[in-house]
Each structure stands twice: as C-alpha cells, then as structure tokens.
Amino acid sequence: MTVSYDNSKIIFDGIKAAGIKSISALPETWLGPLLQRAEDDPDIRLLQVAKEEEAIGIAAGAYFAGTPHILLMQNHGFLAAINGIVSLAQLYRIPLCMLIALRGHWGEPYPWHTRGGIVTEAVLRALEIPIEYARDPQKVAKQIREAWTFSQSSLSPVALLLTRDLMED
Amino acid sequence: MERAECLQMIYPELEDTLVVTIMGACAQELYNLGHRENFFYLQHAMGLASSIGLGLATHLPNERVVVLDGDGSVLMNLGTFATLARYRPRNLIHVVFDNGSLLSTGGFESQTASGLTDLDAIARGAGIVHVAMAVTTLDFGEAFLAAVERQDLSVIIAKVAPVGPDHYGMDLQLGENAFRFRRWIQGRAHPAAGHTA
Fold first, then answer.
1. Does residue A79 lie in a domain region?
2. Which of A156, B23, B124, B136 has a CA-to-CA distance to A126 between 20 and 30 Å?
3. What is the pLDDT of residues B14-73, one digit of tens each?
C-alpha cells in the first residue's frame, strides 16, 4: 500500500478551495505528498513545527492575525498537543481546524501505531471536539470546507479524521 | 535585577506592539503597569507564548511582536527555539525572564537555577542568530533597544530574581482578553496580511 497522490491532491485542492492561506504541520507519511504541495504553492504559508503542540500556539497567532489557517498532524501528534488544545484553544475560545491522519486503525499493519489509533476517537470525544471521518475523495473537499466553517462559528477545535480509505491506494 | 523593573523600563516601547506574556507573575506585573488592548496574557498552556508570537509575527509582518516568556515555560517547549530559528520572523523579540524558579507555582527551582542549564546556549544552538544575555537593568534596556532597532529575530535571556507581585488578580476574563486582542489587531490596517476570517 502506498500513499494516494491523487487523493492528496484532492485534499490539497479542497484546502485551497476553503480559502485557507496558512498551514502548520508536522510531516508524517500519509501527509507527505500533501505537505509537498503546500511547500511548493506560493499562495500557502507552511510552518513546520518540531512538536505538534507548537502548532496550537501558531494557529492562535494566525487567528488573531485574521489569516485562515489549518493544522495538519498525525493522531499521535494530536495526543501530544492536548494541553495546548485545552488550555489555549478551548480556554480562550480560539478556533482550530485540525486535519488528523488516523493511523493505527482498521487495516493497520504496524503495531506501534495501534494504541494511538484505538484511543483517538474516544479522546476527541472526551475533549468535546466535534469529529467527522473523511473516507470518500468525492466528499472530502466539502468536509474540509464545513470543518473550517464550523470551527469559526463555534470558536472551538474541530477534527476531520483522514482515514486509510482516503489516504492509501 | 527584578522582572518588574525590566517591564517598567520597556513598557513605553510596548504601546504599539503586540505583546504575549506567560502566566502568573509576569502577566500580573505587566497588567499592573496598565493593561492595553494589545496585550495577551497566556494564563495557562505553558510553553506556547513564543509559538503564539511566531504565529502573530509571520502572519503580521508589519507589526512588532514581543513575547515575555520565562525559564519554566520555555523549558516546556524548547523546540520553539528551533522553529523560531527556522522561520526567523524579523519582527519578533523573544524575552525570556530566567529566575531559575517555578515562582508562580510555589517557587521550586527550575533546571536553570544552578547555572548548569544555559538558555542562552540552547537558543544559540537552536540556530537563533541574535541572542543577548542581560544581568543588569542597563544590559536589559540596551539589549531590548538593540533588538528593536535590529529588526531581526532576537532572543534576550534576562537573569532576574525569583520575586513576583504582592497580589494577583485581573479585571479581565480570559475569553474577553482574546476577543479584544483580536479586535485590536483587526482594527489596524494590514496591507501585507491581506486576509481576514
């Protein structure tokens, strides 16, 4: 199985169509082709962090600045960012539009991803973060647009989980 | 040298500047000098003040951004120095008040207390080009003015005594601070930013 270049392009085009101008991210395998497109696109500012919690601060700065911004991370990166999500974004009512690669779930061959994959949805729900699963390339652009809209109207974090069906060929 | 003296010294310079402070004593001492709509107090999420500063500075290239950080907070997010160095926003000044203490949470010594851990060396090693160490208020004032004039990413490690304000409390709710801070920014003309949500 390999990462889907076609669907990565569809997702990237969906991000741009949603009006996003800036992305913070920590690279991982599924997000690689997507981030390469972001890096090559002069209309998108890409900030790569050393650890995902930094991206919560950067997203807050972008929000204060008025620049449409999304976060791209693996689910283990989300787990590493929780205090920032709770004690910056949720505490201060700062929206976050998070696209999260859901590793370690149905079909996962790598043991090291599995615990994170198993608990991701439950942790998101415990944090009262609204979630949707992105599985269908024909629907993902609309899901990204709606995730962005909902984050801005609710002033809260929202998560779109990028699944294996979407991310692998 | 005390942090409150340093803050008092630079306070006039912060009138037209986006300021992000860490929690506790640092936030309170700035607030006590007089709150301004361009001040954001990060009362939790330790370590992320400089990341907010990076987000502000990169998306608002025409604004000056000052982050007022501390040793306890920055030790929770040392990767921030590497990310700051990588993107090198010209309009960001990152002040780290190093009192060797987790003062606001009981005064336990931090890893910098003995002098073994050197934040100046960590920042330089992360790739920050302009790093200054200040041990007197004169040093600090000079380092801050040099950073303002330099117009390049600057880190100032300010060695201060582990003392804080004699009382805590702000007439400002957390969400209110965030909403008003954003509104103040949005009320400014930002031709280079160009995007509004």
1. yes
2. B23
3. 999 999 999 999 999 999 999 999 999 999 999 999 999 999 999 999 999 999 999 999
Q: Which of B48, B69, B75 to mutate to test the interface with A (most CBs of A within 10 A)?
A: B48
In sequence order, what are the residues at sequence separation of 6 or more whose Cβ sits closer than 8 angstroms to the Cβ of residue B1?
A: B134, B135, B136, B137, B140, B158, B159, B160, B161
Domain B3-186: which CATH number of 3.40.50.740, 3.40.50.720, 3.40.50.970, 3.30.590.10: 3.40.50.970
**ipTM of this model?**
0.97
Contacts of A47 in chain B (CB under 8 A): 54-55, 58, 83, 87
Specify the CATH number for the domain of residue A116: 3.40.50.970
Q: Provide the number of structural domains found in chain A.
A: 1
- Residue A169 in any domain: the answer is no
Beta pairing partners, B130: B154
Report the distance separating Cα B156 and Cα B94, nearest Å: 6
Asked if B77 lies within 8 A of A22 by C-beta distance, the reply is no
Chain A environment of B87 (Cβ under 8 Å) = 47
The answer to whether residue A56 neighbours chain B at the CB level (below 8 Å) is yes
Please check whether residue A68 touches B, CB under 8 A: yes
Q: Find the domain containing A50 and state its range.
A: 5-164
Cβ of B55 and A57 within 8 Å? yes
- For residue A36, tell me if it sits in a domain: yes
Burial of B169 (0-12, 13-18, 19+ CB in 10 A): exposed
